[in-house]
Design goal:
The chain is mainly α. 53% of the residues lie in helices and 7% in strands. Bound molecules: tryptophan (TRP).
Length: 337
């Protein structure tokens, strides 16, 4: 539909932490769904580098991954002319609004966040204040841009719900300052599980079950050959996430990269067992990732272009964010500069 001056586009925003190399789960579950939305929505996508330091990072790796993630966003189809792509730490308003929202979020609310409880458990030696108040920074990331939709994975839904509570509290005191955001959880097919342990989400922390976007074809092929299938006796390719989580996950991946339905996949591999199916999924994934890997490598050689993209992105983002921040500062009673 044509967009005219007086019907502003709806706004969409999301981010990924550059705390690990991007993988197939990030691509199929998130980035792929972001691409192609720019005609309908005003889109903001960022590298959430400020969030990553809630867990100790190697500085050189963080820098490399942040730039690589930008190149990957572009290689996955996010056109920087049509989408605002930026690095979170380049837009100072995130930290500033984050502080304010800290003061409108309750200790009890933050204590209930399951991601905090998980991470505090996994990093017992470094349960820092930032890890605890991280959802306030995430709320700031979102609210600065007044988005209508926030595409996130199931695991981030609780943080978007908390953001909605903050909006209600803040607007209840000061009037309509923030737009109420909606979480936007992609449909089935987007939740990619680990290849070596299909009960949990594909994650960089289990590298043998994780396919990275920059991985070489032979490594991808090997990971799919070793993918865990199910110990049931029938040994056939059939979609049943309860009884056959391993095979069903491979079917989800195959369906996502080929566009085939589960029925089509079942009949394609009818009578063939897992031995034929696993390498076929691997090959389909290799062909999907090949152009993304090659384009990322090409972009990473063009540092001047990438710098231009993130500078322009930060300028555009900052202009929008500043409007919201000014309003908030005024409402809470800060003296105007
Ligand atoms: N917390 C998200 C994650 O760990 C990343 C993130 C940070 C985010 N700020 C955001 C996602 C704002 C959506 C909107 O995956």
């Amino acid at each position: 539909m044509e967009n005219t001056e007086n019907t502003p586009k709806k706004v969409m925003l999301s981010g990924i932490q550059p705390s690990g190399d991007l993988h197939l789960g990030n691509y199929l579950g998130a980035i792929r769904n972001w691409a192609g939305r720019a005609d309908q929505f005003d889109c903001f996508y960022f590298m959430a580098d400020m969030h990553t330091i809630t867990v100790r990072q190697n500085p050189a790796d963080l820098r490399r991954r942040t730039l690589e993630q930008l190149a990957q966003y572009i290689a996955c189809g996010l056109d920087p002319e049509k989408n605002t792509l930026f690095v979170q730490s380049h837009v100072h308003q995130h930290a500033e609004l984050g502080w304010v929202l800290n003061c409108y979020t309750m200790f009890g609310e933050l204590s209930r966040m399951t991601q905090f409880k998980d991470k505090a458990d996994r990093h017992k030696e470094n349960v820092n204040g930032g890890l605890f108040t991280y959802p306030c920074l995430m709320a700031a990331d979102i609210l600065l841009y007044q988005p209508d939709f926030v595409p996130v994975g199931e695991d981030q839904k609780q943080h978007v719900e908390l953001t909605r509570n903050i909006v209600q509290r803040f607007n209840g005191i000061y009037g309509d300052v923030f737009k109420m955001p909606e979480p936007f959880i992609p449909k089935a097919g987007a939740r990619v599980m680990g290849l070596s342990a299909p009960e949990s989400k594909m994650s960089k922390s289990v590298p043998e079950g994780c396919v990275f976007l920059m991985e070489q074809p032979e490594d991808i092929r090997r990971k799919f050959k070793r993918a865990v299938t199910d110990s049931d006796t029938e040994h056939c390719v059939r979609y049943d996430p309860e009884k056959k989580p391993g095979v069903s996950n491979l079917m989800t991946i195959y369906s996502a990269v080929t566009g085939k339905s589960y029925e089509e996949i079942e009949s394609e591999f009818d009578g063939q067992g897992y031995g034929a199916f696993k390498p076929a999924v691997g090959d389909a994934v290799i062909e999907t990732l090949r152009p993304i890997r090659e384009e990322t490598q090409r972009l990473l050689k063009d540092k001047a272009y990438l710098e231009d993209v993130y500078r322009t992105g930060a300028q555009r983002a900052s202009a929008v964010a500043e409007k919201t921040l000014r309003k908030v500062y005024k409402k809470v009673g800060f003296l105007q500069r």
